[in-house]
Amino acid sequence: MAARQPQTLEEAIRTYADPEVCRELVIGLRWPGGKVTCPVCGSDRARYLARAGVWKCAGGHARAKFSLKSGTPLQNSALGLDKWLPLAWMLANSTARVRSVEVHRRLGVTQKTAWLMLHRGSHAIEAHEPSRGLDLSDIYRESKKRDPGEWPAWAGAGVARGEMVEGAPAFERFCRVLQAVLRVPYAEMRRRRQRKRRKREPS
Ligand SMILES: [Zn+2]
How much is the pTM? Predict the structure, then answer.
């Protein structure tokens, strides 16, 4: 269905305003084969509670309920996928650095929220490792400098200062970035963020 594969940011914003479309896409990217598994124990015996929009693992452990965002860099975010997916789109497909004022304007969030979203998105992308099975350099040319010390520049940079592989359609680029980010464990992203903060603020 054409509507499910947006080609522009405007189309992406419209398409991902529908939680069902978001759900279907994120399940497909996060759990290949569409088999939802518990982020705590890995079991696939999870029941979907439609009204709450969460799954409940049958494993009988603590934190048995999980959402599409649980365990990913989007964990604990009050913002919906209707905002996060278009942000991923912007990061994946912008040829210039994505600015918070742009996110604010296009996604209809406050400037502060936009700034926080960019930060989280950047950290998530930075925490991604090719060893996890997806190589972002497929998307961004490997030859370009990606100095982590400059992360606001390259990550905000739409993760890309025009460094994207030519010929990859916008939707595919978006899916690959989103999939890579969704597979970064939340705990790891936090660890990295804290380490970085400590480095920046020497005591
Ligand atoms: Zn479980």
Answer: 0.79
174 CA to centre of ligand 1 in angstroms: 29
For residue 38, the CA-to-ligand 1 centroid distance in Å is 5
Helices (H) and strands (E) in the chain, counts: 8, 3
The set of long-range contacts for 66-69, using a CB threshold of 8 Å and a minimum separation of 24, is: 66/38, 66/39, 66/40, 68/22, 68/23, 68/26, 68/27, 68/30
Q: Count Cα atoms within 13 angstroms, Cβ side, for 143.
A: 4
Distance 39 CA to ligand 1 centre (A): 7
Domain limits, the chain: 2-30+72-200, 36-68
* C-alpha 40 – ligand 1 centre gap (Å): 5
Task: Please write the tens of the pLDDT for every residue from 10-68.
Answer: 999 999 999 999 999 999 889 878 889 999 999 999 999 999 999 999 999 999 999 99
